[in-house]
Amino acid sequence: MTPLGEAEATVEGPSVASSTGSGITPAAVTPASAWKSAEPEPVTLPSGNVALLRRPSILRMIREGQIPNELRGVALDIAVQNTVDAGAFEAAAEFVAVMIASAFVQPRLVVNGEAGEGEITLEQLSDEDESYVIAWVKRDTETLARFRDDGTGAGRGADGRDVLDPAE
């Protein structure tokens, strides 16, 4: 093992190679300018309303203090284990409301209080719209869950995608 600081990497255009001669093959590296956060996207809800939504990151929300302290434990359980303890359903429901609100870019969604200009309240969402947004947000969590099992999942192919009937 090389002590920290002795190994150096040589940057050659879009790839990185080890200058230690360790036989590591060059790997393509994405330049910093190409790294972006999730862009908001228009989503048509079951009610027919269209909202501009962005998939929130639970771990980022915890780091940035966007989740109240009393909900952080349940948020971490959902983010890491994708489960909730039986005694934490009320906290989980509150956390889900925070997650739904954080997904709404336009209109903004207010969990507690009155809606102002360009805002709606959680009560203004139908149960169907609320469930749809939850499912939309969870896409990333479901993707991560495939890494914890053998990758096939129920109704999914070996590559994790849905199994579809061949076109006729």
SSE diagram, text form:
Layout: E1 9-12, E2 15-18, E3 27-28, E4 41-44, E5 50-53, H1 58-63, H2 69-81, H3 89-103, E6 104-106, E7 108-110, E8 119-121, H4 127-137, H5 139-148
What structural category do the secondary elements indicate?
Answer: alpha+beta
Biggest sheet strand line-up: 1-2-3
Order of helices and strands: EEEEEHHHEEEHH
Overall number of strands:
8
Radius of gyration: 21 Å
Taken together, the total number of domains comes to: 2
Assembly state: single chain
Structure report:
- The chain contains 5 helices and 8 strands, in the order βββββαααβββαα.
- It has 168 residues and is of the alpha+beta class.
- The chain folds into 2 domains: 8-37, no CATH class; 38-148, no CATH class.
- The strands form 3 sheets. A 3-stranded antiparallel β-sheet has the order 1-2-3, with no helix packed on it.
- The termini are far apart.
- 11% of the residues are buried.
- Mean pLDDT is 74; it is low at 1-20 and 143-156.
Descriptive tags:
168 residues, alpha+beta, 2 domains, 3-stranded antiparallel beta sheet, 33% helix
Summarize the structure.
The chain is of the alpha+beta class. Helices cover 33% and strands 16% of the residues. The protein contains 5 helices and 8 strands; from the N terminus they run βββββαααβββαα.
